[in-house]
Amino acid sequence: MSLPEISRSMLKNSLLLGLFAVVTVGLVAITQHVTAPRIVAAERAAQSQLLSQLLPAGSFDNLLHDSQVTLAADPLLGNLSSKTAYIARLNGQPTAVIVPVTAADGYSGAIHLLVAIKANGQLAGVRVLKHKETPGLGDKIELAKSVWIHGFDGKSLNDPSESGWAVKKDQGQFDQFAGATITPRAVVKAVHQALQYFDAHQRQLLGPSSTTVESSTVRNSNG
Ligand SMILES: Cc1cc2nc3c(=O)[nH]c(=O)nc-3n(C[C@H](O)[C@H](O)[C@H](O)COP(=O)(O)O)c2cc1C
Fold first, then answer.
1. What 3-state class would DSSP assign to 143?
2. What is the whole-number distance in angstroms between the Cα of residue 98 and the centre of ligand 1?
3. In this prediction, what percent of the chain has a pLDDT beyond 90?
4. Model confidence over 57-107: pLDDT tens digits?
5. Closest residue (by CA) to atom 10 of ligand 1?
6. Which pTM value belongs to this model?
7. Ligand 1 centre from 179 Cα, in Å?
8. What is the DSSP string of 153-199?
9. pLDDT by residue (tens digit) across 106-118?
């Protein structure tokens, strides 16, 4: 092959490669554009399902995902930035609030929870959203692994009393796991603090609101 022929071949291949890259990038962009709304809708549906699992059937008739309130960072919630809570309503009356809570002191770092508190101050339910605890030890906080998390159902700030809000090893009322006390201790503390937060802010959380999408901001416990 002569030199000009080699140059022509190289140019042709470069152009083909460039064209291939442009087409591929275009296809990826189109796919993203088409699937993005579906992904958002699927995430929303999954979140709504999780939220509704935390509340008794028939205790709300609103779209939980659309009834939001922004909570400023608060030590009692373990959040360093503002977070979204969800208000359950029945016939327009608030019946419960679902609060995101972070227990920073898990065995392997932060444990992210959702804590559902009924308007009367009783816990409707608690679920673990995300954690890095050890499989077979600390992961029994997950409902998929054990029913331990149901031990909070129906409890409130005064039931058990202050000293009862601890694992049994610390003279409290909640079971720990064999050889793994750190994880349940962190979760019990975080749920107790969520109830203290609710006690301090319930008028703001469950106050009257005529709009479906709420965006009031509940200020810090100290503020
Ligand atoms: C590899 C490894 C992983 C562990 N994972 C956990 C865990 O996820 N959660 C936990 O509470 N303790 C875990 N532990 C045990 C803790 O180090 C600690 O001993 C225990 O929580 C204390 O519980 P106890 O007071 O019942 O002995 C783990 C220990 C080891 C060696």
1. coil
2. 29
3. 71
4. 999 999 998 889 999 999 999 998 999 999 999 999 999 999 999 999 999
5. 180
6. 0.83
7. 6
8. TT-BTTBS-GGGSSBGGGTSSB--BTTB-HHHHHHHHHHHHHHHHHH
9. 999 999 999 999 9
Residue with tokens 């937060």, as numbered in its chain: 197
Name residue 53's amino acid.
Q
Please name the residue whose Cα sits nearest to atom 27 of ligand 1.
179
Give whole-number Cα distances, 128 to 38, 100, 103, 111, 194, in Å: 25, 10, 10, 7, 14
DSSP letter string over 57-112? Answer: TTS--S-GGGSEEEE--BTTTTBSS-EEEEEEEETTEEEEEEEEEEEEEETTEEEE
What's the pLDDT score for residue 123? Answer: 98
Contact 67, 87 (CB under 8 A): yes
Burial class (CB in 10 A: 0-12, 13-18, 19+), 207: middle
